[in-house]
Design the sequence.
């Protein structure tokens, strides 16, 4: 019996197939009918896909059942410490480090004692034209969860 392919190995195969087929993450998300950021995260190993979603992606990318099986697995979520050194990821961490305390204070002022859910959550990315260079707009949309004692 073969072990189940790791999510990182499946992600590597998905990325290679996507590039070789000249598809964007948006193309794949559209084919699945699922949100762009969620789809990308799932294909990179951060969310489980349904059997139907995994089969659709594997058919689109000409990947086998071993990849589909892996895409259906529950992940161990989080960032690989080596990825935290990537400049794009590091700048996102830096932004949260700098503005996190202010956002926390503003959430408490506006909503009360609680947190923004990252489970009941939506995220989106967009490009906004700007004279000094296009802007990256990241929208985090999480349900407010009040602390209950």
Sequence:
């Amino acid at each position: 019996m073969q072990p189940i392919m790791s999510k990182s190995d499946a992600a590597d195969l998905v990325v290679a197939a996507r590039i070789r087929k000249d598809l964007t993450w948006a193309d794949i998300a559209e084919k699945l009918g699922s949100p762009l950021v969620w789809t990308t995260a799932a294909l990179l190993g951060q969310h489980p896909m349904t059997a139907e979603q995994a089969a659709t992606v594997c058919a689109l990318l000409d990947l086998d059942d071993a990849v589909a099986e892996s895409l259906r697995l529950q992940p161990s979520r989080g960032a690989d410490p080596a990825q935290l050194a990537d400049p794009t990821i590091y700048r996102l961490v830096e932004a949260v480090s700098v503005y996190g305390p202010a956002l926390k204070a503003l959430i408490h002022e506006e909503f009360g004692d609680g947190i923004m859910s990252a489970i009941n959550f939506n995220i989106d990315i967009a490009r906004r034209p700007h004279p000094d260079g296009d802007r990256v707009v990241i929208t985090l949309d999480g349900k407010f969860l009040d602390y209950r004692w």
The two ends are 49 Å apart (CA to CA).
